[in-house]
Request: fold
Amino acid sequence: MASQLKAILFDFDDTLIDWSGVTLGWRKLEAKRLSRVLSFINARSKHDLTDLDSLVDTYTERTREAWAAARVNLRAPVMPEILLSTLTDMGVPEAASCLDEVLSAYDWSVVPGTVVYPDVPPALELLCNNGIRLGIVTNASLPMWMRDNELRAHGLIDYFSDCRLSAADVGYLKPQSRIFRCALEKMGTLAEETVFVGDNPIADVAGAQAVGMPAVRRLNPGASDNRHLAKPHAIVTSLAELPSLLDNWYPDWRQNGK
Ligand SMILES: [Mg+2]
Reply:
């Protein structure tokens, strides 16, 4: 390990936010969001679009196709582009001229049932208090400004003022190295001074290690450690384990004393 720890980058979903309690079906949630989009378009453009099911089906199918292609080429799916092409093909080409308003109507917010892992806020607080810069790198198809709604609602956004990156904004998904390099550039730190923490062995662990970052795997209940896929520098089941891990790797990281 390098002698100094300057920053920690975190994956978002299932690393900071626990999705295991989500019970409402995704289609139902998508229908709620897209019904607001339909209402906005009908009001703004004097359309009379009523076929919500068809909008949900087409948008969901295109999203599924985009993710299937992305798994092969690691180019990030971009949710606003998918929604826009769906609307254009449904006879609403003018959606392009008011995309921001369409996305406001879509109104992405905290998904019911998601919560911050209880071990996250104390760990972030301790790291911040010791001068460690924190960032988020997420494989989301939503632009970060939309996912910021969740960070705000969960009370986490102030911890991540230096770097919040969504794959949709960078164009590439983890484990592609560009998204990690982009994050390091934003942080202004070298790979060896920056630890990555995430739950996915390939996207997070192998991706971060490929650019020279030490990687910590968050192993959640029921997940396999998948050591054959990637060997993290350490495995934790709670971020409460992170500080003592850092004590071993970077003995001087606690600027404010123990
Ligand atoms: Mg994750």
The pocket of magnesium ion is lined by residues 11, 13-15, 198-200 (CB under 6 Å). The mean pLDDT is 94. Residues 26-106 form one domain.
